[in-house]
Design a protein that fits this description.
heterotrimer, A alpha/beta, B alpha/beta, C alpha+beta, B: alpha/beta, three-stranded antiparallel sheet, 6 helices, C: alpha+beta, 2 domains, four-stranded antiparallel sheet, 13 helices, 4 strands, PhnH-like_sp (chain B), Phosphonate_metab_PhnH (chain B)
Chain lengths: 309, 215, 377
């Protein structure tokens, strides 16, 4: 009896939802991705019980690697409690019955959309990214037939021209997220729509990074300690976003912040996008200006233009 | 049309030799084995314990190699066997029954290759190297019977390796490391290697740069 | 003190409860039964089976009920279910020539073997709202004339044309190159006609309709004639290895459309008629016809034509035909994007600041310039 028939005899879905044949197919793609860092491996992405664009690639990768002893952390926008993170975490709790956590350091597998946790990841962790558009050249050349040739020939002139035009027009590169990188000195890769703030984290990261794009049917990977360079020019080096103020709640600096609008008079505050990091810091006694007094860290509408960057 | 394993079971069970069992727990044994292989591929030179799930495959197939085969191979992946494996009906029956994989005679057609006598293996260049446009369409070569203490060490550098790492494995043919170096030079094309030992496995993706060490 | 937003889990749970309530609507109105949907909304059921890529009228009816009549959502439910089903193999190609025909029309011949069979159709009906339907249904069956079963075979129009050599022959089946299956292998380009047809058969009716229409309006004209549209039952056969012969699994209803198109001929091939092919589950003629027209348009390269229009662009058409993919990605914009938006906010603020700064400098320079000029005068 084949795997799937067996599952149906039991009258329920397989561990982590996917049938074993599908897992094997995805696992093979993951191994190829690891062996060719930054290269997008085509895979026969399955229809999943959540819509394309809502994490089907990440979910398939996670389902293919997850074991009974894993502990899963699921984040979206850096937070464990955003609606789709809640939904996807529930999916794995239901179909795999595994442990889940909000704590970055406790997780063995972390699936994310748009952020990388602030706390450095370890060798024992795997970071799975949900990817909407895996092709870094897509918005310069929409045809896969063309971009495939460019990757084959390592012909990234188009990308450099685009970045250089940015500089000529704006005086700086006008890309703030999904900022292209070159992996292992070979493939230009889209790090998924994480803010470029997170780009330095993927360079020589101790954890294995797996990227899954379900609708576009591609898987790619960055092995641990792999050199990942954000594209730039000698006279215009790559820079990350900076924030003028610390997190309003935990006072953290050099972290990525969400801007929260407090009222209709321009009142706003900035808080950690990584909600677990923020809570852990507050539990450790760090307090930001807003945590102490609501007015202290709030900057009014007239000064709003100074607040970012 | 792909025959289901059900129909295969009926035909093979009429054969003389009893068929060796597959994974005791197909779902979780395969998952455990895959994670070990994934970690091996992601961290070249590290040795990963392969949970072989009590497999007792017919010789010269080994439990670790059989576990890897059952984890990764199925009817979508043509398999090439070296001579000792190819000449064992029991091995072929075991692989056909448990994986449904077509067994091919041309190494260039293979998604996976199993090599039970690595010391006399064919050149790595005989396998599918993938193309520049689809470098993933290459063969993954699994070397059986590896001992991780024998043979000269090679120094590894590249993705998955923090600085440098040493790998010692054998038996491999004398020209082997030169072939692996040539394999790396054609990156992103090239084959990937899995070294299957008695209880562990190591891997060498095409991305790893090799420097032979003086013995 | 500000507290970070929490409660996603509870919000989702409650939203789903509310959806269930809204789906049921006023409970003093009887609930829809699946039989009612399958029997009385058969065009919806057919569309959901086709785009959901799973032939099961009962499940399609359930999906339509669950999706509150949202047919793309229903097709999505079918796809997600379909992907979990065990796969035992591939059926043999259905023989539409042996179809138990309920409707068959040809626009190219006044009469032909087997005749024209109008069958069930909206064609030639006057689109006047039938207020009688609004009244309670008394359960009486509408009167229809019954005819004797046809004795004669009903060959396909394209086969009739083929006999004269006027029509390009059917593609030859090659046992060694199995038909592709894009549910097992990701679509790659160039895509052969087998994959193109599979993609179109699963594709969105509206998308194909618009593309087909665009070819009629001159964006890659193909001179189509509706050679034949037939709808009816065909047998699905499966070759059982262990038996050594084919067994019938059941029957399905399909609509087949063969468009007959002009072909001027090339250096290699004599002028002849070519065709576009459409085949869909159930009676969905609009989709079958659109599919046939788009199929023909996508064959421009093979037939040595010029590519000028969107409907001819294989990568464009095949990459955007799937409404499950399309709706997922369009609707994913509802998901939180705070992080990226924050990054963009920062950038736009910076670029605005730079823009104003630049303008200020320019104004200063102009003022300084005119002041200097005034001074000189």
């Amino acid at each position: 009896m084949n795997d799937t028939a067996q599952i149906y005899d039991q009258g329920e879905y397989n561990f982590a939802y996917l049938d074993e044949q599908t897992k094997r197919m995805i696992r093979r793609a993951i191994l190829k991705g690891i062996a060719i860092p930054g290269y997008q491996v085509p895979f026969a992405s399955r229809e999943m019980p959540m819509p394309y664009g809502w994490g089907t690639g990440g979910v398939q990768v996670t389902a293919a690697i997850l074991g009974q002893d894993d502990c899963l952390k699921m984040i979206d926008q850096g937070s464990d409690d955003t609606t789709n993170a809640v939904s996807l975490r529930g999916f794995f709790e239901k179909t795999a019955g595994i442990r889940t956590t909000y704590e970055t350091s406790e997780a063995t597998v972390i699936q994310t959309r748009h952020r990388i946790p602030e706390k450095p990841l370890t060798e024992d962790q795997v970071l799975v990214f949900q990817v909407p558009i895996p092709e870094p050249l897509r918005f310069l050349e929409p045809r896969e037939t063309e971009t495939r040739k460019m990757h084959a020939l390592e012909d990234y002139g188009l990308m450099h021209v685009k970045l250089y035009e940015d500089i000529a027009k704006n005086g700086h590169i006008a890309t703030t997220y999904a900022y292209p990188v070159k992996v292992n000195d070979r493939y230009v890769m889209d790090p998924s729509p994480t803010p470029k703030f997170d780009n330095p984290k993927i360079d020589r990261m101790a954890a294995l990074q797996l990227y899954g794009a379900g609708r576009e049917k591609r898987i790619y990977a960055i092995p641990p300690y792999t050199k990942v360079k954000s594209l730039d020019f000698e006279d215009y080096p790559f820079e990350v976003q900076t924030f003028d103020k610390p997190c309003g709640l935990c006072g953290a600096e050099n972290v990525y912040l969400d801007e929260v609008i407090l009222d209709d008079k321009g009142g706003r505050m900035f808080v950690c996008s990584d909600s677990d990091h923020c809570e852990e810091r507050r539990a450790d006694g760090h307090l930001g200006p807003m945590a102490a007094s609501p007015e202290a860290g709030q900057f009014g509408g007239q000064n709003a233009q100074e607040t970012a960057r | 049309m792909t025959p289901t394993n059900t129909s295969l079971a009926e035909t093979t069970q009429t054969g003389a030799a009893p068929l060796a069992a597959g994974f005791a727990d197909p779902v979780h044994d395969a998952q455990g084995c895959f994670r070990a292989v994934m970690n091996a591929m992601a961290r070249p030179a590290t040795r990963q314990l392969i949970p072989a799930g009590g497999l007792k495959p017919p010789a010269p197939l080994t439990p670790v190699a059989a576990a890897i085969a059952l984890t990764l191979i199925d009817y979508d992946t043509p398999v090439w066997l070296d001579k000792p494996l190819m000449s064992s009906e029991a091995v072929k029956q075991f692989l056909r029954f448990h994986t449904g994989a077509p067994i091919v005679s041309e190494p260039v057609e293979a998604a996976f290759a199993l090599v039970s006598a690595p010391e006399s293996m064919i050149p790595l260049a005989s396998f599918n190297q993938g193309s520049l446009e689809y470098p993933d369409r290459s063969t993954t070569v699994i070397l059986l019977g590896q001992t991780f203490s024998a043979g000269p060490a090679v120094m590894l550098e590249g993705p998955g390796i923090k600085d440098t790492a040493l790998l010692t494995t054998g038996p491999v043919p004398p020209v082997f490391w030169d072939q692996v170096i040539a394999n790396n030079r054609q990156f992103p094309r090239g084959i990937d290697l899995i070294f299957a030992g008695a209880s562990e496995a190591a891997a060498l993706p095409r991305s790893t740069r090799i420097t032979p060490q003086e013995a | 003190m500000y507290v970070a937003v929490k409660g996603g889990e509870k919000a989702i749970r409650n939203a789903h409860k509310l959806t269930a309530k809204r789906r049921r609507g006023d409970t003093s109105v009887p609930a829809l039964t699946l039989d009612q949907i399958a029997e009385q909304l058969s065009h919806s059921v057919a569309r959901v089976m086709g785009e959901g890529s799973l032939y099961d009228e009962g499940l399609a009816a359930l999906a339509i009920k669950q999706a509150r009549g949202d047919l793309i959502e229903a097709a999505f439910l079918m796809r997600a279910y379909r992907t979990t089903l065990p796969r035992f193999g591939y059926s043999l190609a259905v023989d539409t020539g042996a179809m138990l025909v309920e409707r068959r029309v040809s626009a190219t011949y006044k009469d032909l073997p087997g005749g024209q069979v109008l069958g069930p159709t909206f064609d030639y009906s006057h689109r006047l709202l039938d207020f009688a339907l609004a009244a309670e249904d008394d359960g009486t069956e509408p009167e229809v004339e019954t005819a004797e079963p046809r004795e004669t075979a009903m060959p396909r129009v394209t086969d009739l044309l083929g006999d004269e050599g006027l029509m390009e022959p059917d593609p030859v089946t090659d046992e060694d190159t199995p038909v592709g299956d894009l549910t097992r292998e990701p679509l790659s380009f160039p895509a052969d006609r087998d994959l193109r047809l599979q993609n179109l058969a699963r594709g969105d009716e509206g998308f194909l309709l618009a593309l087909a229409y665009s070819t009629q309006r001159g964006y890659g004209r193909t001179h189509p004639f509706a050679g034949e549209i037939r709808y009816g039952e065909v047998e699905v056969e499966f070759f059982a290895e262990e038996l050594g012969f084919a067994v019938t699994l059941g029957t399905i209803k399909v609509t087949e459309c063969q468009m007959v198109n002009q072909f001027k001929g090339s250096a290699k091939a004599a002028p002849t008629f070519t065709r576009g092919y459409g085949l869909v589950f159930g009676q969905v003629e609009r989709k079958a016809m659109s599919m046939a027209m788009v199929d023909r348009s996508l064959r421009w390269q093979e037939l040595g034509e010029e590519q000028t229009a969107p409907a001819q662009d294989v990568e464009f058409v095949l990459s955007h035909s799937d409404n499950i993919q399309a709706t997922g990605f369009v609707e994913h914009l509802k998901l939180p994007h705070y992080v990226d938006f924050q990054a963009e906010l920062g950038l736009v603020r910076q670029m605005r600041a730079e823009w104003f700064e630049k303008r200020r400098q320019e104004e200063e320079e102009t003022e300084a310039g005119s002041a200097a000029q005034e001074a000189a005068e």
